[in-house]
Amino acid sequence: MGCNQGTQPRLSTERTGSLPRCSAKGVICKFLTMRSSPKAQSKVGDALIHREAAVNWLVLHRMRFITGARGIFLFIQSLLKSPLAVGALVPSSPQLSRLIASQVGCGSSHVLEVGAGTGSITDALLSLGLPANRLFVIERDPSLVAHLHKRFPNIRVRCGDAEHAGAILCEEGISQVQTLISSLPIRNLNGDDRIAIVGGMMKALAADGQLIQFTYTANCPFPTERLGLHAERVGRVWMNIPPAVVWKFTRPATV
Predict the structure, then answer these.
(1) b/e for 138-147, b at 16 or more Cβ within 10 A?
(2) Do 121 and 246 belong together in one domain?
(3) Quick one: which of 1, 150, 161, 211 could link to 249 by a disulfide (CB 3.0–4.6 Å)?
(4) Domain assignment of residue 12, yes or no
């Protein structure tokens, strides 16, 4: 199982020629400024620069609210190192974390969280009453593993890949779990890798267990027919960057 081992981004106020630096609406920005007088171009550019700076500030402020200063640094470091593996602009919001945590039952089985990151969902699980000794976490980034150990000293955290979740649990004396929560950017993976990781996670899940996965697209993230799973859309969370959809996956009941 693999364990893979940045700086905080600065707000940009640069321009390229007379055109403002803009991201999502770059083509429209260019069109507007090309058809305007130099004075109008300057006003449009200033407005867009201030808007982008404000958005960047709000994102960083929200990250600090969710994870604290240390969490911001580690999240950005991980994002710069491997953006596709992180797959998010900021850590999960409290609203998303609470919706996911609310799907966990009050039984005695362990709960496995994979791809915990800075611990937003971990914190929500504990806040909603899940005993620390029932929660087990797998995270592949060693720096985030160290952060989780420090932030949640009473839970077990292992550095490893979700594909090997079943083997990691066995090493810890846990057979299978009733609930598995995945924050993995599953849509960033190619088809074969996606199947391998989901298959590995399902090996760690009891026959009547549930896999909770969130994604940033409206479509189901797993090929359910190929995997033999039943999918249920739990809900959409608009108060997240970007908005997210929570899915629940179970195995069909056998007669």
Answers:
(1) bbbbebbbeb
(2) yes
(3) 211
(4) no
